[in-house]
């Protein structure tokens, strides 16, 4: 009897959705059978005359495995009804109706045939992984359906995905299938402090091996797989150990899957290739390191690099679910339960270099990211950075269009940065060396921990080819036709070649430093302590640890001055640098010969133009502040008057805070700096006159009317108001306000004046903003105190009936 899968129950509604809407979204958890059952069942509903079904898988090993499984289900060898196509391997024929391809293959097919003739349905499997190629493929298919092929079917299948944005983008119905799984006992067993997690992993594998059928161990990369395999061998464990990763030949991958399917007890050490679409039978126990190697953009080498990082909660659930396919299972997680993890992995389009994406879309005819329909648009800074690199490499013209050189780069099927190196190597008589460097940059370091010099790696490939067969085979794949030979010695010419191809990665030793370098485009990098290249004047940085600041160099090529000739000719420029010398307190200028951020030579400028002098003065003010200007009390009072009025007035007033003034120096101050160059010159600036430029004529009148600089008090004296504090202050001797019941309002009554009443000696006696109440309620107490301290001055019982004065009683009497 044929085995039934949960997804079988939704095939009919899925078919109906595809026929009616033309597209659909299938949400089905791991174990539901979506990757192998749905495509085969849909073959029954899409006749041979309608065209092939194309199904995309995120990885080569999954594409081969899924295609092989479906072919065996039909009782056929792969390549008949069901075939597959990857970058390095193809099994299809004229009879193939269902073709499983890796995601990058769809991009190449669409670029070659924008109508995808002969294809009736495109299926995106495991879309929740959100690879860059999947996002690009979806954008291309969406445009193809809109512009050329409204009849082209589209099915997106996912195990864990928030379908809301996808539904909005595609306007597609969602079909959901229940999974089939058994409970999994999840245990958290982190390593002890200072214990290598891989040694801890070996211990946990050994602890469960006696009770397990297949133990599936998730590790981040090949080096970790080899390390754990060696530890298991040394432990004396009798169970066979198998490795499974994308770099294995198909026959070895299939052998692992067949062993598990046959019910053999087995330990499978795998990367995240086994996390989703790749089915391994018989798994009862999962050991999860919680780590994966993901591509992340490295600004110090202008490419994406693989970085070991913590997985997301969604990935952890997928991995543990592998133990619950046959019955109750067990998952051991090698991290603390208290650790907070991201709910989902950030999509590749948001975290990797976009050079390949920009190049592919240039071939498509798209020069701006907003021209496409994206589930998540590429970040604009990353897009612009990729465009700049491709222009530097001659792949794009100034308008962003594809050049002939760009087409040649695209035809190689490797990332653009490596393709540029390979093509340049062929032109410069170093095809083999260039291909080997490209292979070295694509794989893990073959001499990890043995210095960073690229030359030692190339020498190792020559001296010990048997140890590095896989890497040499990859290099050979990048060579055209019959294996060529280098006409030049890489030891003499490789530095110049690399500098021409990757000029932005040129770095020079910082002055007075032994291992710290300045890169051409800005970032600082450093050599590991004690490295043999320490003190080398020039380096070409090929790999770092990915840190955004002071990244540690992992791979570099030393350069001679002669290697930099073409770089200097193309990128070296003279710049005039105008600035403020805080020590000399004057504007200074230099002519700098620069290679990007690297200053090669400084020459002082003897004479500066009027514009340059003003520019230098403004830079000095921005750096040292407005204190360089001759601020008077009236200027600060003006600033406070405008600020207070702006806070209560409905009219639009300029921001005159120090911060705002510094931001707008060109508007109000620059016209008053003509002919000035030194701090002494700045002391002659008419600041008040300059500030007035910020107000219109009507605002000047309104400021004078609403916020007067001074008021006339009963003695006839004109007294300045102080606007600089929290309140507007009138500071006068108490006796000068005899007879006055209220102070004049300001800001059209929206603000009041606070009277600071002083003693005859000018010391504070009282503060009030309501004179009438002060005379009525507080004056007698103040009078009693002041009569004793200042008996020579008049202190009338009725201050409102008295004459305002500053005179003593004797002088008052003398004047009568």
UniProtKB/TrEMBL annotation:
The UniProt record lists the keyword Ligase: no
Top-level taxon in the UniProt lineage: Bacteria
Domain Helicase C-terminal: 200-365
All copies of domain Helicase ATP-binding, residue ranges: 15-162
Gene3D superfamilies for the chain: 1.20.120.1080, P-loop containing nucleotide triphosphate hydrolases
Keywords from the UniProt entry: ATP-binding, Helicase, Hydrolase, Nucleotide-binding
Family annotation (Pfam families): CON_HrpB, DEAD, Helicase_C, HrpB_C
InterPro entries: CON_HrpB (IPR056329), DEAD/DEAH_box_helicase_dom (IPR011545), Helicase-assoc_dom (IPR007502), Helicase_ATP-bd (IPR014001), Helicase_C-like (IPR001650), HrpB (IPR010225), HrpB_DEXH (IPR049614), P-loop_NTPase (IPR027417)
Protein name from the UniProt record: ATP-dependent helicase HrpB
Organism annotation: Alcanivorax jadensis T9
């Amino acid at each position: 009897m044929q085995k039934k899968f949960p997804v079988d129950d939704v095939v009919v509604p899925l078919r109906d959705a595809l026929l009616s809407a033309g597209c659909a979204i299938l949400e089905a958890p791991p174990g539901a059978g979506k990757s192998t059952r749905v495509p085969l069942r849909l073959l029954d509903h899409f006749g041979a005359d309608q065209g092939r079904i194309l199904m995309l898988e995120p990885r080569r090993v999954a594409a081969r495995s899924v295609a092989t499984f479906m072919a065996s289900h039909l009782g056929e060898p792969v390549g008949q009804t069901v075939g597959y196509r990857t970058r390095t391997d193809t099994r299809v024929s004229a009879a193939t109706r269902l073709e499983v391809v890796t995601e990058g293959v769809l991009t190449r097919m669409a670029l070659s045939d924008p109508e995808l003739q002969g294809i009736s349905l495109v299926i995106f499997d495991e879309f929740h992984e959100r690879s860059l190629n999947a996002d690009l493929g979806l954008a291309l298919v969406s445009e193809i359906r809109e512009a050329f092929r409204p009849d082209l079917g589209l099915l997106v299948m996912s195990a864990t995905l928030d379908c809301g944005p996808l539904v909005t983008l595609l306007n597609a119905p969602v079909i959901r299938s229940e999974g089939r799984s058994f409970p999994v006992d999840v245990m958290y067993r982190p390593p002890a402090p200072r214990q290598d997690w891989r040694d801890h992993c070996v211990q946990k594998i050994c602890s469960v091996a006696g009770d397990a059928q297949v133990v599936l161990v998730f590790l981040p990369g090949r080096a970790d797989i080899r390390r754990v395999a060696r530890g298991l061998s040394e432990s004396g464990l009798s169970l066979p150990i198998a490795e499974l990763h994308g770099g294995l030949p198909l026959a070895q991958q299939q052998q692992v899957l067949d062993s598990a399917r046959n019910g053999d007890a087995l330990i499978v050490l795998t990367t995240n290739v086994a996390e989703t679409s790749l089915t391994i039978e018989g798994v009862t126990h999962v050991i999860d390191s919680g780590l994966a190697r993901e591509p992340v953009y490295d600004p110090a080498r202008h490419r994406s690099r693989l970085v070991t990082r913590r997985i997301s909660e969604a990935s952890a659930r997928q991995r543990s679910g592998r133990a619950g396919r046959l019955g109750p299972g067990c998952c051991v997680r090698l991290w603390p339960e208290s650790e907070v993890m991201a709910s989902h992995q950030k999509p590749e389009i948001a975290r990797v270099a976009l050079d390949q994406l920009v190049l592919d879309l240039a071939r498509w005819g798209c020069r701006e990211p907003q021209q496409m329909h994206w589930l998540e648009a590429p970040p604009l800074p990353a897009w612009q950075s990729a465009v700049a690199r491709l222009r530097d490499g001659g792949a794009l013209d100034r308008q962003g269009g594809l050049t002939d050189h760009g087409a040649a780069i695209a035809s190689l099927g490797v990332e653009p940065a490596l393709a540029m190196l390979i093509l340049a190597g062929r032109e410069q008589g170093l095809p083999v060396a260039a291909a080997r460097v490209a292979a070295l940059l694509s794989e893990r370091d073959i001499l990890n921990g043995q210095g960073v010099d690229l030359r030692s790696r190339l020498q190792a490939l020559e001296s010990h080819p048997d140890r590095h067969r896989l890497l040499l085979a990859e290099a050979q794949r990048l060579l055209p036709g019959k294996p060529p030979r280098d006409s030049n010695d890489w030891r003499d010419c490789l530095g110049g070649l690399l500098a021409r191809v990757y000029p932005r990665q040129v770095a020079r030793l910082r002055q007075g430093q032994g291992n710290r370098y300045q890169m051409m485009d800005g970032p600082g990098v450093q050599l590991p302590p004690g490295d043999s290249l320490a003190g080398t004047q020039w380096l070409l940085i090929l790999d770092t640890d990915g840190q955004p600041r002071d990244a540690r160099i992992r791979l570099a090529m030393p350069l001679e001055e002669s290697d930099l000739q073409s770089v200097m000719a193309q990128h070296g420029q003279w710049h005039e640098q105008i600035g403020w010398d805080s020590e000399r307190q004057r504007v200074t200028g230099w002519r700098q010969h620069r290679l990007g951020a690297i200053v090669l030579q400084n020459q002082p400028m003897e004479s500066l133009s009027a514009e340059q002098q003003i520019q230098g003065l403004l830079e000095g003010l921005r750096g040292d502040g407005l204190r360089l200007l001759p601020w008077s009390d009236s200027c600060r009072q003006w600033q406070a008057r405008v600020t207070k009025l702006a806070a209560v007035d409905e009219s639009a007033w300029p921001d005159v805070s120090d911060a705002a003034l510094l931001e707008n120096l060109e508007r109000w101050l620059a016209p008053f700096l003509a002919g000035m160059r030194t701090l002494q010159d700045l002391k002659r600036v008419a600041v008040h006159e300059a500030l007035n430029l910020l107000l219109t004529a009507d605002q000047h009148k309104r400021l004078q009317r609403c916020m007067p600089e001074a008021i006339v008090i009963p003695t006839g004296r004109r007294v300045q108001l102080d606007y600089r504090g929290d309140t507007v202050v009138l500071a006068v001797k108490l006796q000068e306000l005899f007879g006055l019941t209220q102070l004049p309002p300001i800001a059209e009554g929206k603000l009041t004046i606070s009277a600071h009443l002083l003693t005859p000696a000018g010391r504070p006696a009282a503060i009030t903003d309501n004179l009438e109440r002060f005379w009525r309620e507080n004056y007698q107490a103040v009078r009693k105190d002041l009569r004793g301290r200042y008996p020579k001055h008049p202190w009338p019982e009725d201050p409102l009936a008295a004459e305002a004065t500053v005179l003593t009683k004797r002088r008052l009497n003398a004047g009568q």
